[in-house]
Amino acid sequence: MNFAFAIAVGLGIAAGMWHQPFVLGTAEMVSQVFINLLKLISLPMISLSILSTASGVESVAEIKRLGRTTVKYTLLTTVIAAITALVLFLVIQPATPGMLGEAVSLGAQKGYLDYLLASVPSNALQPFLDNHVIGVLFIALLFSVAIVTLPIEQKRLLHNLFVALFATVMKVTGWIVAIMPIGIWAFVTLFVRDVHGGLEVQALALYLLCVVAANVVQGAVVLPLLLRSKGIAPLKAFKGMLPALSVAFFTKSSNAALPTAVQCSVENNAVSEKVAGFTFPLCTTINMNGCAAFILTTVLFVATSNGISFTPFDLGMWVVIATIAAVGNAGVPMGCYFLSGALLASMNVPLNILGAILPFYTLIDMLETALNVWSDSCVAAAVDHDLAPASSLAPVT
Description:
The chain is mainly alpha-helical. The protein has one domain (2-392): Orthogonal Bundle (Proton glutamate symport protein), CATH 1.10.3860. Helix content is 77%, strand content 0%. Helix 8 (180-195) crosses helix 16. The chain is globular. The model is unreliable at 103-110 and 390-397 (pLDDT under 50).
């Protein structure tokens, strides 16, 4: 697949420089089809991943204390990851307003207060029709809370339904990923056509630097500080998790690394079996430090490149939005990429520049997945420290 991506990029560069009307017209049609496909699967993916997870929870008591503590550290680390990405973006400044040409019409941009107000819809289908990510998250979370309180028989029925629907969406996602090289060719072709020196290679390199640096700072500075605050040696904890981090890095899947992560946490880092057994599956769903950094950096980069400027209030709101969106991402393949595209689409921002980012996303995804699992292990260790007296209870089944 990586070889196919490389071929697609090369052909896209050649086609973009060729300037043949028929080729460019074909690229425009193909790119629009892929943009529509990304929009088609992104919102069902978000909502069904949350609903399938929530419907599998056995009882409110099961998640009350462990869940509260886990969510506290998850939100803390995810917010810090988004803030770190914002600071690096403002310092490095990879994009300047309108460097891709004309700015997006201000009339097409939604005010953030209006955007947040629409997060509480009057119609359950409206957020899906309007491509409103936060509204979809709100509905999914609201229904999730309600599902947890249902009788066990009804809960199991809904769980089987949502798991089957989510598996269906993931099957469609797999098909789209399989033909993604065609989309990459179209995106790169239009990207090369539209650049005309406007977006330098340096700008893309600085964007990648922002994303990588945000992950490195989070993994090497922020998370070790969390461990030190609990009296845990960061280097020892890191060495204990190396097998799981290696699996996460090379598979690009937090879910694939889950069994190894739980085992390493219990056997190497002395986290209780109960805490590890509860915290890691939950964190695999909601603890997405790398995703928050990627979403924030990508949205700001693409939007700024298309002429959109952000006030300090706007930037603060995007920290919140990136955090919520990252929590809603269930560690699915290319989930952060799809979420970023959905958020940009909801702002009516052209998505062509995402095609230039896509060839590099494999490496970004590897780094982010390893960071997410490392963050999961740090959260598990912090929760185990805080709930040490309760950790001797029987493991949650």
